Amino acid sequence: xxxxxxxxxxxxxxxxxxxxxxxxxxxxxxxxxxxxxxxxxxxxxxxxxxxxxxxxxxxxxxxxxxxxxxxxxxxxxxxxxxxxxxxxxxxxxxxxxxxxxxxxxxxxxxxxxxxxxxxxx
Length: 121
Fold this sequence. Notes:
Elements: E1 3-7, E2 10-13, E3 18-25, E4 33-39, E5 46-52, E6 56-59, E7 67-72, E8 77-82, E9 91-98, E10 110-111, E11 115-120
Parallel strand pairs: 2-11
Antiparallel strand pairs: 1-3, 3-8, 4-5, 4-9, 5-6, 7-8, 9-10, 9-11
């Protein structure tokens, strides 16, 4: 059974940093594209960043230059390093797996339960 487990969320002051982790089981990270999504109350789920072992990476405009997605195939883990955090980054962050590089939620087949990120001003 495929399971994705996020961790690393929390509360941080604006301008601070957090690193989210996604531990994958039942799926080979190197054979899939992995993504991070976020959803704030009352808003649509938004693609933040995605990475494929051989396909490069993609970022939402809001994340580009501040966030970095990476993966460790040996540890079956995907990371999202978030720097220069802003209050508008506050959301539940989800890890997901897809067959192709994409920021569209509909392309992702497996999802984690999410980890909350709260940025105070």
